[in-house]
Design the sequence.
């Protein structure tokens, strides 16, 4: 039986997708349950909405209880993915976030200017990536939640300062993360025999900041030769903008996600807001992302791809690529 969802329900669903806080999401789910047509065709969807609402309310209660017990932080993920920046004091993490996102976080030439996590959105083509600037890693002062936020992120950037013993900074930062069982690598891709029990694996690159002039560029080349050749390191300057665009591209690449665009039959594709899916996703995964009931009902799909197809019919298990356009047929 078709669901025949009403305009009121679809408006509430759109608001839910755009909601940023738990409170907003709860309100949207409650509205969706209020206006959804009540018949056999929506029983499964109603159950799914109630389960999602229950989980969000439990999460809200858990965070409220945690805040009563002690000071902590949680950054809700937004955009195509979340990247956390780690580094010693005065490496220029906040300046990099400002340069990449047009944010206006405080930047000062003294340690521990950043005392609380700050999130900002970095544009990349037609999507946005969330960057989280964290207080510095340090033996003298570190809140327990700093490592928790690093582990919760989709990927991590270790920031070092080319003008202040970058080798020592890099060794300290990576050792600091290893001691807290945050290891470089992607979950599922680290060989089982090399895995550390209880460790969290995240894609990690090193960015060398303050490469502002020719002298610093030469210093970077020396630094590059002295560290592990397998460690990916990018030179950048938050001050001048040197290396920022390659760095921006690398941040997107680390997330291992793709953009897929929807197209309604007989209409032009919607190129304004792509759906973001994990790399390796299929046509069926796309349908599930658009709407669970759609995934159960669609019969065929046409795909437009820069590398392979031009409106060709494909199976549900067709693997998608970044930039594909999909037209689903009921």
Sequence:
């Amino acid at each position: 039986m078709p669901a025949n969802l009403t305009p009121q329900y679809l408006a509430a669903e759109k608001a839910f997708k755009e909601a940023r806080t738990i409170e907003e999401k709860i309100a949207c789910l409650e509205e969706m349950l209020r206006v959804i047509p009540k018949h056999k065709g929506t029983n499964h969807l109603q159950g799914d909405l109630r389960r999602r609402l229950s989980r969000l309310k439990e999460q809200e209660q858990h965070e409220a209880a945690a805040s009563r017990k002690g000071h902590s932080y949680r950054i809700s993920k937004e955009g195509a993915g979340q990247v956390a920046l780690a580094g010693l004091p005065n490496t220029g993490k906040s300046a990099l976030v400002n340069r990449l996102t047009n944010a206006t976080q405080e930047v000062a030439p003294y340690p521990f200017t950043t005392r609380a996590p700050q999130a900002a959105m970095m544009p990349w083509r037609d999507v946005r990536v969330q960057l989280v600037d964290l207080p510095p890693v340090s033996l003298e002062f570190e809140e327990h939640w700093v490592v928790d936020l690093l582990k919760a992120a989709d990927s991590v950037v270790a920031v070092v300062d080319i003008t202040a013993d970058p080798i020592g900074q890099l060794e300290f930062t990576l050792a600091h993360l290893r001691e807290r069982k945050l290891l470089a690598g992607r979950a599922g891709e680290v060989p089982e025999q090399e895995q550390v029990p209880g460790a969290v694996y995240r894609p990690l690159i090193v960015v060398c900041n303050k490469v502002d002039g020719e002298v610093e560029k030469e210093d970077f080349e020396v630094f590059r030769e002295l560290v592990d050749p397998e460690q990916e390191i990018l030179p950048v300057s938050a001050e001048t903008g040197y290396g920022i665009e390659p760095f921006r591209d690398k941040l997107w690449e680390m997330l291992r996600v793709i953009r897929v665009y929807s197209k309604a039959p007989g209409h032009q594709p919607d190129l304004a807001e792509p759906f973001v899916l994990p790399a390796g996703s299929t046509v069926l995964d796309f349908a599930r992302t658009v709407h669970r009931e759609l995934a159960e009902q669609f019969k065929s799909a046409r795909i437009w791809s820069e590398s392979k197809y031009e409106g060709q019919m494909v199976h549900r298990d067709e693997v998608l690529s970044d930039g594909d356009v999909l037209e689903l047929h009921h």
Summary: The chain has three domains: 7-69, 82-255, 257-329. The chain has ten helices and 13 strands.
